[in-house]
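Hi R.,

Here's the chain you asked about this morning:
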Amino acid sequence: MLRHSTEMHDNADLVGGVGGSHLDGLIEGLVRDGFAVAPGFAPISLVRALRKEASERDALGEFKLAGIGRRQDFQKDTRVRSDRTCWLKAETLAQCQWLEYMESLRLAVNQSLFMGLFELESHFAIYGPGDYYQRHLDAFNGNNGRLLSVVLYLNEGWQSDWGGRLRVWPNPDASSVATEVEPRAGTLVAFLSEKIPHEVLAATHERYSIAGWFRCNNTTADWLDPPR
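And the predicted structure, written out as tokens:
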């Protein structure tokens, strides 16, 4: 159970471009359900800029088949996932704007929920027709430092019958689905990395998104984590 501050900060004004109602709604959903969905979180201008950049980078061959696990546990297994990814490194204006939005979310969550979110890692993801990612957790027993996962969708004009939904379960033991989210442009999904299983269903059209993970700071005198 998340600890929720009784002294909620006032988000009535825009914070880093993010509307206060979006931030408050995300926090309330995380407290209540462990996940939250915010349609229209990012403006269409930013969505278009990020989508354009992803398409251009893909044309240059910068996207690679995605893997699972970190460091020595990393592997590629198309039986589990078949999307392609390209990491974000704050190299463009659009990426910096995305990171500003995420910084606003990080500060709001830390102030309200005391989660200790430290740093964000994120990548573009492209799912071609038929691609998928089977049910999984983004973290397991704290083995990669991920605390809060986020997904931003970059698909204008997405139709329901194209598929490609994000399927979400309420907890690791659940057999019944809590919700399914269509990958519509500007929608942000946030969920607890260790607690909320999820799955990307196959689509009939190409599907673009950004996936990100806020991590804690596990750095010690002998270990740098998050890595630089």
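The radius of gyration is 17 Å.

Let me know if you need anything else.
M.
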